[in-house]
């Protein structure tokens, strides 16, 4: 026992929290894990302990009593330093329900085509929660900053999670996104009504509806308005998209734009790949659909015959406007199975409120980092013998 | 001559204006036409006489002296009636450069798969102009209407073009779009600095950046804020998207959402389909890319070998923010041709600021009205013998 404790002290991950046993790890240190797909779509709001975990570094140990959030315009005096208590007592509390997706969600499908650098995520590096806290606009105003007038181009966020070199995780968003969402971006201290769990950013996470998880910095302790993008590795040399002829020998990260808003995605969570179906006549297919930029889901098409015929799925309305649909749409469809086949491929594809659709194939969007994997989702299943 | 005049009087299209001879008609009555693709990309702003024409009905004859624009909230007193002179003299003039695309642009590619109902548009039912006029917000305020507070869900627009039944063309947009674009939506009286030509809506057209042409009503004479969508045929039973298993025997227009914001599109304008190239080693490919909702173009990928390898095109910056990119991006790329091939397929596909991509195939997006045709654009060309 003593030896174990000693080892934990040396292991930078020794202070990581315990995780739910149902989570399926994509890596242990840093810890990254996703819930089983069938549990994922069990509820519109993902329970905190099943929410996918995407950590880049060890989970920091933070004392809420001494913690503070710094807010400033780069190279200017002024700004503010806010305690947790300030945030909870001096500002109105606002809640927003958003879906967060890792840019690497569904990367495993890209890896099958050609190897990529990144965690082998399945289809569940995506989850939904109701976040509560203080709007970015309120915090900036309190700090003497008018976001509509400030002469800056980016809003930088810094976390308290640190690498061995002492560098912390950081990211930024363009000022245009910050301005248009100033009352929807939230410095959150609650996740589904509870203190944010340590794995998800305790005590503070910045929630930016409609954009990639990578910019929604956890363990947030600095907001800096700047003329420059975040200089962090993850902003500059990661989380960008390239075409499929770019690989590590010819990539130039400075030529691509940082991923912010995400494109439309959907996935089949039930049945699972390789499953033997129970019924020979029809199958009930369930899944999620989501798009970035607040675009709602207009339609989900499902096929049980490899794409020959399509059926429109029933959407469980999320009650959000199609132009401020920050959260996913869960859906299901019961469709006839092809007769006298032993196997078939189930497919889903979604349409958002800008009538964006998903690309047909993974081949066409393959990229060296395996991000933005949003092709039609295909699941092969076995059909039982018809007993009639 | 007399007989011709007599016939013209009976022909509802007898008063239509003369058109530029370079325009290629998709239909004569009503007149619909597109410019040659190589002319289309000759300039960032499309010359007025080459701008694609999409008329649903005869071009109305309008006297600018007696013309007025009515503005009202449905079932309420108040509102305003504005003359052309009022619009030009009582309000600040605002200009916005936008690309307008017909929902049927590139329909000809869908028709090749399976017949659809609609005009056989090529790739040039899209054009760009600088529009000048009065913002929707200014006009509504002048009319005593606060768009952020009014208890309405849609903004309806009515034109003066009439069918044989007396019904006028009409359309509407959701209040959310009107609110977020209240200072970018323009009641335009100028197109590229000149009076709007009769084919394009003289004297007034509503310009709504980032959305489909069908809602940008020409010959505009009524703006009505309402709890309901426009009841027009084109809003209710047309210009909606369906999956490829829906055809005229099973379509239910009430189940789909009216097209508003458009998805990402791009096309190769040079070389043309079937062209014999001049050079055996490389080819210069030129085209346009555009996305709805103000999403700018982040990348255009071009292939000269049917999609085996991709090259990033050079983008001609349009100087618009990637989140308010209302106008297209013209691009070009010079890429090597496959060796010892007599024929090859050129392809382009684009990425917008939400990292949306185009679908790989027309098959996957085929729909009974042939709208939203934004698959990878493919052009087959012949390669000359290498003389070296
Ligand atoms: Mo991520
Ligand atoms: Mo159209």
Give the tags.
five-stranded mixed beta sheet, 388 residues, globular, mainly beta, 7 helices, binds molybdenum atom, homodimer
Structural account:
2 copies of one chain form a homodimer. The model of chain A has no long low-confidence stretch (mean pLDDT 96). The first copy, chain A, is mainly beta and 388 residues long. In chain A, 51% of the residues are buried. In chain A, strand 8 and strand 9 (168-174) form a beta hairpin. Chain A has a 5-stranded mixed β-sheet with strand order 5-4-13-8-9. In chain A, strands 6, 7, 10, 11 and 12 form a 5-stranded antiparallel β-sheet that branches. The first copy, chain A, has 7 helices and 21 strands. The first copy, chain A, is 11% helix and 31% strand. Chains A and B meet through helix 6, strand 16 and strand 17 of A and helix 6, strand 16 and strand 17 of B. One molybdenum atom binds at residues 54, 102-104, 213-214 of chain B.
Task: Offer a quick outline of the entry.
The first copy, chain A, has 388 residues and is mainly beta. Helices cover 11% and strands 31% of the residues of chain A.
Largest interface: A-B, 47 and 47 residues
Ligand list: molybdenum atom
Quick one: biggest sheet of chain A? Answer: 5 strands, mixed
Poorly predicted tracts of residues of chain A: none
Beta-strand percent range of chain A: 25-35%
Order of helices and strands of chain A: HEEHEEEHEHEHEEHEEEEHEEEEEEEE
Q: How many beta-strand runs of chain A?
A: 21
Tell me roughly what share of residues is in helical segments of chain A.
Answer: 10-25%
Instruction: Please identify the structural class of chain A as seen in this structure.
Output: mainly beta
